[in-house]
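Sat 14:20. Reprocessing the chain from the morning session after the first attempt stalled halfway. Input below, unchanged.
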Amino acid sequence: MKIYTKTGDRGETGLIGGKRVGKDSQRIRAYGAVDELNSSVGLAIAFLKEKERSFSDLVDVLVKVQNDLFVVGSDLADPDFQKSGNKTTRIHKKMSEDLEIVIDRFEGELDPITFFILPGGAIESSLLHQSRGIARRAETSVVSLSRANDINQEILVYLNRLSDLLFVSARLVNKRLGVSDVAWHSK
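Finished this time. Tokens:
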């Protein structure tokens, strides 16, 4: 099977269920931002795996996040959210609760925050901060979509919690590598 179908050559794409929409629609922008986030998390994982110091616990969490983000994307790609008998896998409350458990565990390794933190420190931490920024953009895209379309509201909760996890993970990486978080200084 060829990767190209030519069905999108005129600026439209298909959603789950067969409906065609413009590639510039808010729904496509929303799950496109989620796809970009997933790629960004993948880049962070690749760098974390290269470190001599083990980040296997964090890598395992981030791989799970990538799989969850694939579910977010498919959830957003199916406009028939409320249709009974729908077989699209959906984001559910437990997924966000699982992130909270990890956030709490990782925060247990960290010193309390006493200053505003700029994205930075180790490269791996910076990549996680970048992913956090993309998560925020994905979240705002989904919020915009939700203003005019019925969507699974658990997606918003999950993306909000994920940005928190990415922030804590970025701090955790710096801590484990012995690199200070970068403090913001007003001038």
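The longest strand covers residues 12-14.
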